[in-house]
Amino acid sequence: QVQLEESGGGLVQAGGSLRLSCAVSGRTEMLSVYDMGWFRQAPGKEREFVAAVRWNSGATAYADFARGRFTASRDKAANTVSLQLMSLKPEDTALYYCGAMRTKSFVISRTGYDSWGQGTQVTVSA
Description:
This protein is mostly beta strands and about 130 residues long. The protein is built from no helices and eleven strands. It has strands at about 1-5, 10-15, 20-25, 35-40, 50-55, 60, 70-75, 80-85, 95-100, 115, 120-125. Strands 2, 4, 5, 6, 9, 10 and 11 form a seven-stranded mixed sheet that branches. The N and C termini lie far apart (about 40 Å).
């Protein structure tokens, strides 16, 4: 099991950028078989997939709304996962969560995450 802690959220104007980080602790020796995901939840809405990165290879997957604006990455030396947010829109306002799960197939996971951080708030003003 791994523990996750997000940081980097804040208030930004539309068109601005933020960089979210997720510090991973615990059984980090297992990360080579993990997918690391980013999700978000806006008030009154369900949590939705944003992006994911496969720890071992660095391969990434994105939701349609994130592709081209958001970039997921991992730093093996620092045991961190990051999500660079660019060209932010008011509709990107949400609580952003980092998630982790053991890889289940050759396809990067978009569901089934079972370890979560507490989340970091991103608010985009018009």
